[in-house]
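FAQ: What does the model actually see?

It sees only this:
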Amino acid sequence: MNTVERNYFKPTFILVDIEGTTTSISFVKDFLFPYARSRLKDHVEKYWYEPEFKEDLSLLKEQATQDLENNVEGFIPILDGDDAIKSVVNNVLWQMDMDRKTKALKSLQGHIWQRGYEEGLIKGHIYDDVEPCLQKWKNLGKSICVYSSGSVQAQKLLFGKTEKGNLLPLFSAYFDTNVGQKIESKSYTRIAQKLNCQPKDILFLTDVSKEARAAAEAGLQAVLLSRPGNAPLSSQDYKDFLVISNFNELNVL
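And it is asked to produce this:
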């Protein structure tokens, strides 16, 4: 199949990754993550007795129990009593240092970011080509969906308060790691089931080749993004997938 033929797609659903695909990796790694870290202690102290944080704390304690049972290296326990707040902060900082993707951490980070978005301290970064293309595809009758390791809550915050305004009306569904890890093909099978469609009817856009391969293994169409700051792709990736530098290079019918 030549490059021209590979560049034409007629999906029913377009599934987009966020980091490195719609949004700069540097925004996530160099702004969002450090922001959550810098606000962590104040957030825990301020909302300690609030129902929302109590739910986050419950998730953190469940994760801590699992980590203890699994003898996770470097594990920092969550304590009760006078040291409770300090131990929670230390546990979360440890998870952040490990770049973990636990449900507990993602939920807490999402709530910290939510306060930042609400206070106007955070505006989600979106590449210039993204909004016009998503709008064009939506006008063609395509359903645009999101699949990210960040929580659905965090996804909606980012797209709801971007530098380009509120983009939430463009999207019809959101998926996070509750459907599975992004490098596992069964996750994409579950997404197809939830969308009530055949896997082949979904076009997945991502910057991570392992994710593209998992999606393709499940029967999805997959395209790789090579944006500035993204991890380099291999020569094999270029052979196996169409690689584009922005959404404008994709021909959706």
